[in-house]
Amino acid sequence: MGKIRELEAALAAIADGSKLVIPADYAGVAMEATRALIRRGVRGLHLVTLPASSLQADLLIGAGCVATLETSAVGFGELGAAPRFTAAVLAGTIALKDATCPALHSALRAAEMGNPFGALRGIIGSDILKQRPDWKVIDNPFGENDPIVLLPAIRPDVALFHAPLADRNGNIWVGRRRDLFTLAHASARSVVTVEALHDGDLLADEVMAAATIPAFYIEAVALAPRGAWPLKMGDLYGEDTQHLLDYLALAATEEGFGRYLDRHVLRRRAA
Amino acid sequence: MSATAAEIKPEEVLIDVVLRLIEGARHVAVGANSPIPAAAAFLAQLLSPDAPNVSLQQSPEHNLWTDGGRELFDSAGQGRIDAFFFSGAQIDGSGNINLTVIGDYAHPKARFPGAYGSAFLYFMVPRIILFRLEHSRRTLVDKVDFISAPGVSPPNVFRRGGPVALVTPLCHFSFDKSRARFRLESVHPGHSVEEVLDSTGFAFDLPAGVPATPAPPPATLALLRAEVAPRLAAIYPKFAEKVFGIPVKAGAAPMG
Question: Which ranges of B79-173 would DSSP assign to H, the alpha helix?
Fold first, then answer.
């Protein structure tokens, strides 16, 4: 069976309760796929962000899809705080594993290498460390009186991201969005949406191949033009700032968030 | 151009202060939600004969990295990044920053986005400049509710970096890491030492005769408004609208 699927079929790999890893806004966020997951009613996700998120995590949390969140931050930068994330943390309705950006990189890179843990400088003296009993401080075995933090590897069930191009074999061209390599390598399976399909073999061209995730990491690919909207997609399109501002205004209340879902998520936009 | 003090926006004074604080840095990195540092870094590139490398973490068009978001942390871990910036919901007198919660962690009264890379970068980047756009006893506190990243560390903890300054709309503090304490360096035009004392929740060193922060030179202001402002608008639309009057652009219309 080929790897190019309809969006809903591609998302079948993301079961209820999956440990799902998603990238930061600069790397390519699969927003069309996220709306489809919410329509399907996915539940109980253990969501991991590499390393931070904005609308994608906020929508999934607000729609009740997330049981556990492992992140360094969820926010909309200068546009404001993430309203449904904030509300969920204050109400205690999600389990939260606060991290710091390079800790998530380190833990996922450990999984890429098949190692049980990663190591990271810093963190010691932070209250984040106090809240993470799963992180351990050891004395550097190659040094002397040199404490360092160890982090257990994060091995997601599924990675979900958006990329510019896929070929018919399911090879994914990501350009310089190298975080997507980490997501694909660390996860058991990857589900990818793409702006366009590439005629030919992405691995046949040295220049393209260097920035291509080989198909053996990829479970399924779906075509989703403008699939990161309203977030940005590298140099292909910018973020729809006005839409994000409208979202933040609506999602300030549970009821307003429901109206946003009705308008932009549950009623599928005409293709 | 001859701008009078009244025509200079407070943000422009802050940008000029940060510009002086990053002087001589070879590689300046800017994280999420840092329009003032980004503006200062762009200015440094235009003004300095040894233009620093500038990398904006959230904007692949404005950074030099080709290895993903992790490259900031990897290069900072190696000591390749000279200057970085943090804010905090709370900043305390020992340089601890709180980007996480107000109140008890398990039952917080307020929640903020999270620590981002602070718990690592605060240790690794030699010149961390703190900025806080609300200078009040609510934000500049004696002790933070939650330490997202500590201001200083015990001698056996590897640490090459940390805070060197705190810039607010009222003043510029320097930070003495050996004493874990801020010192008032200058007060911005239109404000007073008394106002700083009234508005600051932590104790700090107060030298006799604190100078006024100099106004940005006209050439700096002109460059900021003509060349840096449009670049900022693409990354920080709300800030550029507020400070430079550049309207927020909607993205391309969604399909359907």
Answer: 118-124
Return the residue in B34, B61, B116 with the most chain A beta carbons within 10 A, the one to mutate for interface testing. Answer: B116
Write the pLDDT tens digit of every residue in B110-123. Answer: 999 999 999 999 99
pLDDT tens per residue across span A187-230: 999 999 999 999 999 999 999 999 999 999 999 999 999 999 99
Q: Which of B216, B213, B163 is nearest to B193 (CA)?
A: B213
Residue B79, chain A, CB below 8 Å: the answer is: no
The pLDDT tens digits of the residues spanning A11-37 come to 999 999 999 999 999 999 999 999 999
Q: Do B70 and A128 touch (CB under 8 A)?
A: no
Q: A72 and B116: CB-CB below 8 Å?
A: yes
CB-based contact A253:A226 (threshold 8 Å): no
Residue pair A187/A157 in contact (Cβ under 8 Å)? The answer is yes
| Helices of type H across A41-124 | 55-62, 83-91, 101-113
Q: What is the predicted ipTM?
A: 0.96
Amino acid at B40: A
Give the model's pLDDT for residue B6: 52
Handedness of CA B227, B40, B114, A110 (dihedral sign): positive
Domains and CATH numbers, chain A: 4-102+154-263 (3.40.1080.10), 117-152 (no CATH)
Q: Is B256 on the interface with A (CB under 8 A)?
A: yes
> Distance from B245 to chain A by nearest Cα, in Å?
16
Domains and CATH numbers, chain B: 5-244 (3.40.1080.10)
CB B44 within 8 A of CB B149: no
The answer to whether the CB of A45 falls within 8 A of the CB of A178 is no
For residue A241, give both structure tokens: 């700032």
Q: What is the pLDDT of residues A120-140, one digit of tens each?
A: 999 999 999 999 999 999 999
* H/E run at residue A96: strand A95-98
Interface of B with A in 8-67 (CB under 8 A): 32-33, 35, 57-61, 65-67
